[in-house]
């Protein structure tokens, strides 16, 4: 499935570096039908709180170095701690 972007809305605090605010919303050119392979992202409630030490999985997409390959990265993390 390939759908072009209608609009990309970067976070207002993003300054072009892989630091704070490195996130954006993407509006698609047309709606897509959900299926077993196309699903909306699952986000927790804004009031949900995880205690320190809770194991989570974090993923992302993008370059961490100029000219990088833009590969998906991720791994186990601890809330309030360092990557494992």
UniProtKB/TrEMBL annotation:
Origin: domain of life: Eukaryota
A Pfam family recorded for this sequence: Trypsin
Molecular functions (GO terms): serine-type endopeptidase activity
Alphabetic keyword roster: Disulfide bond, Hydrolase, Protease
Oxidoreductase listed as a keyword: no
UniProt domain Peptidase S1: residue ranges: 4-68
Gene Ontology biological process terms, A to Z: proteolysis
Keyword RNA-binding: no
Protein name as it appears in the record: PRS27 protease
Organism encoding this protein: Rhinopomastus cyanomelas (Common scimitarbill)
């Amino acid at each position: 499935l390939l759908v072009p972007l209608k609009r990309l809305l970067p976070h207002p605090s993003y300054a072009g570096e892989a630091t704070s605010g490195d996130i954006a919303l993407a509006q698609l050119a047309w709606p897509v039908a959900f299926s077993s392979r196309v699903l909306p992202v699952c986000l927790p409630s804004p009031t949900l709180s995880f205690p320190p030490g809770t194991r989570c999985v974090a993923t992302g997409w993008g370059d961490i170095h100029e000219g990088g390959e833009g590969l998906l990265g991720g791994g186990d993390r601890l809330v309030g701690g360092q990557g494992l």
